[in-house]
Amino acid sequence: MSGVTDPDGWFSRHTHDWTDWRLDELVAAKGRTRVSLVVPARNEAATVGDVVGRVREALMDTASLLDEIVVIDSDSTDATYDVAAEAGATVHRSADIRPDLGSFPGKGEAMWKSLFVTAGELIVFMDADLTDWDTHFVPGLLGPLLTDPGVDLVKGFYARPGAGGPYEGGRVTELMARPLIALLFPPLADVVQPLAGEWAVRRSHFAELSVPCGYAVELAALVDTWRGRGLDAIAQVALGRRAHDHQPLLDLGAMATQILAASWARSSPGRDAAGADEIALTQFLPGGLAAGSVLAPSRSLVPVTERPPAAPLL
Q1: Cα distances (angstroms) measured from residue 257 to each of 144, 250, 304
Q2: How far, in Å, CA of 97 to CA of 93, rounded?
Q3: What is the pTM of this model?
Q4: Contact, 219 vs 194, CB < 8 A?
Q5: d(Cα 111, Cα 197) in Å, to the nearest integer?
Q6: What is the residue-level pLDDT of the chain in tens, covering all 314 positions?
Q7: What is d(CA 87, CA 90) in angstroms, rounded to the nearest whole number?
Q8: Which residues contact 304 (CB under 8 A, 6 or more apart)?
């Protein structure tokens, strides 16, 4: 890719563009390999049907790249389940998958539970809230896995514009995740978007990873793959442009807390997030406790539970 300044480094060797592979080439490379698309979703009735329908038409009905599209509904209170099913996905409620193992809220929990209801040797994850995207995301992410047996995990990256400019769509990445990686995991500094929700992984590898139940799943998988398999087991692919509805700033505090907890647990052997499944987070909201005050403390418990590797349970 143009602009690369480390011709012998990881970035130049493992950074790709989605146009590096033609769809027919990937279908041929797939052969008898089974591929699953997993879409974790919570209250995404407005967008999940478009995600499922477009991918199914392009990559199952027209080209045989995917073998199944599975939506894991994570405690939705809207019509996410019905919309996804009508669009052609196989839909499971996260809490109903292996009820003997219990259920936790969160994106990572839905992704971990997907291992019990999918058959793909390769798994592609896509968020359900996409509003500006295209179906080439899926073959782009599969390219390195189908053509390089040494790659176990592939991260997508893309332009993430927001209302305030080109970086407004990646606030947690720029303000917290990237500095955190620079401090604790510097070999991963060349991963463009460590928190990207679009990524792909070998099933056998994902089943060996500890999985945070919340938003830390992406960073944890990245760090644990590097630690366990080395940098050469990771690749990244430029996917163009991606947009979705952005969370309010205060909601991002809980996301950041979960990512920090998972990073803390991985920063040195034997360390965990204070041995807790929840972390108390204090934020300040308008509406003070005393006359003339404009802020009041609001305290919430942020879950930081992790699931153990699923392999022994499958």
Answers
A1: 32, 11, 8
A2: 7
A3: 0.91
A4: yes
A5: 11
A6: 444 456 579 999 999 999 999 999 999 999 999 999 999 999 999 999 999 999 999 999 999 999 999 999 999 999 999 999 999 999 999 999 999 999 999 999 999 999 999 999 999 999 999 888 999 999 999 999 999 999 999 999 998 665 555 555 578 898 999 999 999 999 999 999 999 999 999 999 999 999 999 999 999 999 999 999 999 999 999 999 876 566 677 778 999 999 999 999 999 766 554 456 899 999 887 665 555 566 778 899 999 999 999 999 99
A7: 9
A8: 212, 214, 216, 257, 258, 261, 262, 273, 276, 277, 278, 279
Cα–Cα distance between 277 and 256 in angstroms, integer? Answer: 15
Q: Which CATH number fits domain 10-250+305-313: 1.20.210.10, 3.30.559.30, 3.90.550.10, 3.40.50.300?
A: 3.90.550.10
**Amino acid of residue 83:** V
Structure tokens at 96: 């109903």
Token pair of 271, please?
Answer: 């360390």
